[in-house]
Amino acid sequence: MTVAGTFAFVVWVARSLWRIAPTSGPWHIALTTVAICSVLAALTLFIPLGNALRIRTKISRAQAAGDITGVRKYASRFRTAAWLAVVSSFATICITLFVLFLMANNHAVQQTFFNPAMIGRSWLNVTKAFGENVMIALLSEIIVLVLGLLLALVRLAPGKVGRPISLVATAYIDIFRAVPAIIVIYLVGFGLPLAHIPLLSALGPMEFAILALSLTYSAYVAEVYRAGIQSVHYSQVAAARSLGFSHLATMRYVVVPQAVRRVIPPLLNDFIGLQKDTALVMVIGTVDAFNQAKIYASNYFNLSSVTVVAILFIIVTIPQTRFVDHLIDRDQRKLRGGS
Amino acid sequence: MAFLTLDSVVKSYGERTVLRGIDLNVERHQVVCLIGGSGSGKSTLLRCINALEDINEGEIRLDGDIISGEGINVDLLRRNIGIVFQSFNLFPHMSVLKNVTLAPIKIHGIDAATAHERGMELLRRIGLGDKANAYPDQLSGGQQQRVAIVRAMAMDPKVLLLDEITSALDPVLVGEVLDIVRELANDGLTMLLATHEMSFAHEVADTICFLHEGVILEQGPPSQVLDAPQEAHTRAFLSRVGRLRQ
């Protein structure tokens, strides 16, 4: 029933697409293609449905033969097939709703966000400006990796002597995790030039952006490192100390290498956050991808250039996730794999 | 004076006193076994000697030098006293050989080539030469524990502490680990071991100490403590572990 309902819905959407499509031109072809594709996609829903029905006949056959394990087996397969049909229907509905949204109001949504002409006009300059975002992100990430680890180690400084400096690190982390990144960027970008501090005030907006993001994200990353360091079992520390390693040597050779392996996924999470926050630097006037796109957006009264920025962020983020997954896999195979 | 001496050592965690005045003398080349129920203070005692725990009262001396109390250089002390743990605690991110050579290279400053040669020699001696490049998680428990012993021995300690090193192993693997301890004892290494392996203790120990509620209740040669215990608590413990018929 779900399948039939979904199919009817998709056909209705396809028909309305057909109706709004102009009689000629590229839009006619595009909308017709979308309509045909949705109907075809909906048709594939009948494959799992057919499977389910076929299995049901097998159940009754097994029942007639008195084959209890057979009934159980086919009943289980039937449930899987039936659920597959239902769940695929919902997935199709979601996608169709999105298509419907794009085409709503005589495909005004599509025109506003995905205007091919606007995308064509802006993508080159926006992509060039995106280089600025990549640059800011890469340099900040290098600083954050080092500064974050340093902060975490200082925060975990042991004993009475470590206490004062550990408090300073804690205060830093608390403060910079609390202040929104955009505020830090604003204060650094506009405040430092005003304050006339030798050296610092002479930097350009890009350097201010790197500085601000490094300040904020090293606080986050310090906490990630700290969690990793504390997750290494104390017995590892005891083993290293018992061999005569000092606290720092134990951290360096035994604890930190294990901690870093464990925190790579959350670390990547924070780095993706950092990369996305490079779009915030437009508040201090850096010509990054977002600022460039906004120039197009306000000139042409169309947001498709900003969509280009969104797509660029998606393009750089997804491969990183896969790459890190691959690294972790390889490391696990090395440490755990058969000898 | 004995090689390693403990003089009225007291250790407490807050309200709970774990060691209530331990006196113990270990001569050079001697093997001393600590036996006793769980919670009797065996592990704590070993950890105190290695300064993994501070002691509250008393004094520990190694070769005449005081090695307990404020201001001692624990890193220096631990180079002379090795310890092997119940849970092996090998470094999982390093190969077996690296586990063994890390401390000699970084602490003793031995050059890498010499340390590797020495490490390989030690690994071959325990029959794990072919596992040098494997990682700890790829080894069996018994193999890991043998590597842990070698890791401690690579530092040439004057005393080796073994903290229930076979308790986490299944009975088949216990033998291969004890063979190594036996060999070390025959080589004349001074050892202090907490163990539940009574027949092994009988065979390898020069002195057996029975710990009960933080004191050494009875000590003497194995034939005395294990076969003809004087104290009621010792007798009760030994019959519980099936060593003594009442």
From TrEMBL, chain A:
InterPro entries: AA_ABC_transptr_permease_3TM, ArtM/GltK/GlnP/TcyL/YhdX-like, MetI-like, MetI-like_sf. GO terms for molecular function: transmembrane transporter activity. It is a multi-pass membrane protein. The chain crosses the membrane at residues 29-53, 81-104, 134-154, 175-196, 208-225, 300-318. Pfam families: BPD_transp_1. It comes from the Bacteria. Residues 130-324 form the ABC transmembrane type-1 domain. Coiled coil: none annotated. GO terms for biological process: amino acid transport. Keywords: Amino-acid transport, Cell membrane, Membrane, Transmembrane, Transmembrane helix, Transport. GO terms for cellular component: ATP-binding cassette (ABC) transporter complex. Part of the binding-protein-dependent transport system for glutamine; probably responsible for the translocation of the substrate across the membrane. NCBIfam families: HEQRo_perm_3TM. Belongs to the binding-protein-dependent transport system permease family. HisMQ subfamily. This is ABC transporter amino acid permease. It comes from Acidocella aminolytica 101 = DSM 11237.
From TrEMBL, chain B:
It comes from the Bacteria. One of its GO terms (cellular component) is plasma membrane. Coiled coil: none annotated. It is a peripheral membrane protein. SUPFAM superfamilies: P-loop containing nucleoside triphosphate hydrolases. Keywords: Amino-acid transport, ATP-binding, Cell membrane, Membrane, Nucleotide-binding, Transport. Residues 4-238 form the ABC transporter domain. It is found in: Cell membrane. GO terms for molecular function: ABC-type amino acid transporter activity; ATP binding; ATP hydrolysis activity. Belongs to the ABC transporter superfamily. This is ABC transporter. It comes from Acidocella aminolytica 101 = DSM 11237.
